[in-house]
Design goal:
15 strands; 15 helices; 4-stranded mixed β-sheet
Length: 327
């Protein structure tokens, strides 16, 4: 996970480059040759770091660099910039500018890489992450479910609910904690009742569920609902051989089926695989799927990134398993 501390350690100020003996001409040459990347005025990062970073990691570098230039005022990082500070995903979002909001910014002014939004951010909607002032988790979710496309907004809302309600060690979900955050997000939107996108935001918030582990699961659920399936159960426990449970991403109870979204990281990311090889992970998944099919007698379609380009694409994938919305 990208953190403010990591971003600060990766960023190089103009003063640091000066101390290394790099003149303006040398810095420009390093940028042209692909050794350095300019993040913000006076701030740089090694190009290898920039190339390896996710969209969230890149935007966090920009946010931290911009924050280093802020002096006083009531501005706080907001929208996508607050989202990355809170560790929330940016599904299909690639921010070009850092967003800051406050009541005394002199209007909505967009500079080359900073968008300033003149809007009230009351004290209860403010917090800070490792010294960087930003909108609170609830306000950030409220803003994003209103203003982002539903795919991005739901991914953010799900991740925020998961942050407060999911216990990874116990694999349990605290419904009360999730509903407390949902209520606080709703209160934020109520204070912005005349703002753009509130109707969409309320819908996205109503279907948000922190049991979703990945944006791909969030978007899959959105598309299942659009296709006409009933709201699926999430992370459904299935008794496993030898005790314990397997968790299945989706319980499609209205069509007597299971469903699983396969993120590529399950097989390719060493941090997710642990000590296992991709082949070992694949074999274990096959054994798990065979057990679930055999003990529940339900169909078990799987899909990945290529099947969630649209609701139609997911519908086509499911139809190959003879799974279609009832009625």
């Amino acid at each position: 996970m990208h953190t403010v501390a990591t971003a600060r350690s990766d960023l190089l100020s103009r003063a640091e480059l000066d101390a290394r003996g790099l003149s303006s001409r040398a810095i420009a040459a390093a940028i042209d040759s692909g050794l350095l990347h300019r993040v913000h005025s006076g701030w740089y990062v090694e190009n290898r770091v920039w190339d390896a970073a996710s969209p969230e990691g890149r935007h966090l570098l920009q946010v931290v660099a911009v924050h280093s230039h802020q002096r006083g005022g009531d501005a706080v990082s907001s929208l996508t910039s607050a989202a990355v500070l809170h560790g929330l995903p940016l599904f299909r979002l690639t921010p070009q500018r850092v967003h800051v909001s406050g009541a005394s910014l002199g209007g909505h002014v967009t500079a080359t890489d900073v968008a300033r939004h003149q809007t009230a951010v009351p004290e209860e909607d403010r917090t800070s992450v490792d010294g960087v002032a930003c909108t609170s988790l609830a306000r950030t979710v409220a803003d994003m479910v209103r203003l982002a496309m539903p795919e991005a907004g739901l991914s953010i809302a799900d991740a925020a609910l998961r942050r407060v309600a999911w216990d990874d060690a116990e694999r349990t979900y605290d419904v009360d904690a999730a509903e407390d955050l949902r209520a606080r997000v709703g209160e934020c939107m109520q204070r912005q009742a005349r703002a753009r996108g509130v109707r969409r935001g309320r819908y996205v918030l109503s279907i948000a569920d922190g049991r979703a582990q990945l944006p791909g699961e969030s978007v899959s659920r959105l598309y299942l609902l659009r296709l006409g399936f009933a709201t699926p159960r999430l992370q459904v426990p299935i008794p496993a051989p030898g005790g314990g449970n397997y968790l299945v991403d989706f319980g499609l109870d209205d069509v007597d089926a299971w469903g699983e979204y396969d993120g590529e990281g399950k097989y390719l990311d060493p941090q997710l695989r642990g000590a296992k090889t991709p082949e070992e992970v694949l074999l274990r998944e096959k054994e798990r799927e065979d057990w679930i099919r055999g003990t529940t007698h339900r169909r078990f379609p799987r899909w990945g990134k290529s099947s969630i380009g649209s609701a139609q694409a997911l519908g086509i994938r499911l139809a190959k398993f003879h799974i279609t919305p009832p009625g």
